[in-house]
Amino acid sequence: MSKSALQIARASYVPKMPQVLRGNVQPKEGAATESVSDQEEIKKLFPNTYGMPIITFEESQREMGLENPVNVGVILSGGQAPGGHNVIAGIFDGIKRLNPDSRLYGFILGPAGLVNHEYKELTADIIDEYRNTGGFDIIGSGRTKLEEKEQFDKGLEILKKLNIGALVIIGGDDSNTNACVLAEYYKSINAGVQVIGCPKTIDGDLKNDQIETSFGFDTACKVYSEMIGNIQRDCNSARKYWHFIKLMGRSASHIALECALQTQPNICIVSEEVEAKQQSLDDVVNDIATIVAKRAEKGLNFGTVLIPEGLIEFIPAMKALIAELNDFLAHNQAEFDMVRRSGKRDYIISKLSPKNSEIYASLPETVARQLTLDRDPHGNVQVSLIETEKLLAEMVKTRLDEWKKEGKYKGKFATITHFFGYEGRCATPSNYDADYCYSLGYTASMLIAAGKTGYMSSVRNTTAPASEWIAGGIPITMMMNMERRHGAMKPVIQKALVKLDGNPFRYFASNREKWAIETSYLYPGPIQYFGPTEVCDQPSKTLQLEQKSK
After folding, report:
1. Parent domain of 310
2. What is the pLDDT of residues 467-508, one digit of tens each?
3. 384: pLDDT confidence band, cut at 50, 70 and 90?
4. CA distance 194 to 185
5. What is the CATH classification number for the domain harbouring 154?
6. pTM of the entire predicted model
7. Domain match, 93 and 241 both
8. Which segments are annotated as binding site for Mg(2+)?
9. What SS3 state is found at 33?
10. What is the C-alpha to C-alpha distance for residues 479 and 474, in angstroms, rounded to an integer?
11. Which DSSP string do the residues of 266-284 spell out, in sequence order?
């Protein structure tokens, strides 16, 4: 593999990790746990893995190690996130320390590799090629869902053949939900296979008191913030464009909010606030147009607008429409596919309830069509395909044209639209993500050594120096609730949305009026890997503000 100068320099970087993991450890068990909601339903579905205690690793005088080697399988599941390779490196180093004869196997292209028996052994020379690098290309990733008994049994065949005693699934909320289901099944049949999860997603929506952040969020936000900063510098130089920038993040607005904290744009929409205020699409357009008009009065006919990917789902009227569409297509997809393209819009209008039919009929043709495109594997609208940035730019222009005719607006309004998503998913991980991911992987190996299953690797206190980080595990059932998927109620990990009473949003809200009218742009520049710790090792602004309140 040929390498860039940065890759060569990064290859020698030794990730920082909790001091406790450098010596002998023993697991300390806390009190019994319960799911975040729907306790009775979750308990019935997970009788073998429900209620387990939170685990914290502490120093031990006893020599750590395994008498027999352990073979471990690893799966990268779902969308890429910076740092995945370091999770795998952490697992590898951890199990080799426990017993030098332990072996690590990677399943190719995600969960499908387990079901289809496609794998490769990850040896030291392979692992060393990928340390501190971005991407998931060491074994690839995929979005196959593990939810059927037939898949579990097929996977068990190859696990037994390779004498694999533990499987680590590195993924987001849906992937870790699958890990929880798999752990429950294997325990129920005494398969002798442990299942451990690792919290991955740039979206930032997989977190709680024990999981402070999902890995990849820090790096992705720094990449997007660099690009937003570059655009803002251009914007402030040319002084003639409004840039509408949509940011990846699925349902939650964590990425948009973090990038706003890093760059101080004129406008940042937070979907969770739109929903809380029961705003319509028209309200959102009015809010943006009002700020555009106020800046125009000062001769500032330029600016930046940050838009979260999932905005459309949080506008109450649109949310109700999408929920009905999801249910309808879950049961009538085949019939819908048979309808000619020219007739699909009228077909949908005829099948929806009167209120939602009216809303659907009022949407621009492109947005209406995008709402009926194929669902993702979890039955959700693929919001990344809905060009919300273009929709808002067009609607704001229409509103300003109306105001101009009424004499309420005299400025100029030209737009450029952007969507930042894939640009950040495979970036070389920041020092924070390189360290955090390695620690998550190493912690996963310790959970395996402790005989645990149905746990997610947890590393906390990460705004402190890495030596003070707290390593342990959280039962995945603790994060579960019941949600409607594909027209039926299913157990899933509860998504963590932006808290409107949380420190990050409150800080943003206290500054946004100033940022809206003044040109207060920050230009973060590229991720720094070498230099003083205050430049290279800082976690996200979100995490710093959240931890400040604890």
Report:
1. 227-424+501-548
2. 999 999 999 999 999 998 877 899 999 999 999 999 999 999
3. low
4. 11
5. 3.40.50.450
6. 0.93
7. no
8. 173
9. coil
10. 9
11. SEE--HHHHHHTT--HHHH
Neighbours of 38 (CB within 10 A): 17
Count other Cβ atoms within 10 Å, centred on residue 487. 12
Catalytic residue from among 93, 174, 203, 537: 203
Task: Show the tokens assigned to 154.
Answer: 């097929």
- CA angle in degrees (0–180, nearest 5) for 179-183-186: 135
Instruction: Give the number of other CB atoms < 10 A from CB of residue 499.
Output: 12
Distance CA 436, CA 84 (A): 10
Q: Which residues are annotated as a binding site for substrate?
A: 201-203, 240-241, 248-250, 309, 422-425
DSSP state, 462?
Answer: T
Distance CA 214, CA 217 (A): 6
Domain count for the chain, please give it.
2
List pLDDT tens digits, range 263-322: 999 999 999 999 999 999 899 999 999 999 999 999 999 999 999 999 998 998 888 898
Integer distance in angstroms from the first to the last C-alpha of the chain?
Answer: 45
**476 in the same domain as 415:** no
What is the Cα 20 distance to its own chain's centre?
28
Annotated binding site, which residues? 79, 173, 201-203, 240-241, 248-250, 309, 422-425
Nearest to 236 by CA among 293, 289, 302: 302
256, 308 Cβ separation under 8 angstroms: yes
Specify whether the CB–CB gap between 298 and 315 falls below 8 A: no
Say if residue 168 is in the same domain as residue 196.
yes
Angle of the 217-238 helix axis to the 431-449 helix axis, nearest 10: 170
Asked if residues 107 and 119 have their Cβ atoms less than 8 Å apart, the reply is yes
Q: What's the chain's Rg over C-alpha atoms?
A: 24
Q: Are 212 and 231 within one domain? A: no
Binding residues for diphosphate: 79
Annotated active-site residue 203? The verdict is: yes
User: What are the pLDDT digits (tens) for 396-407?
Assistant: 999 999 999 999
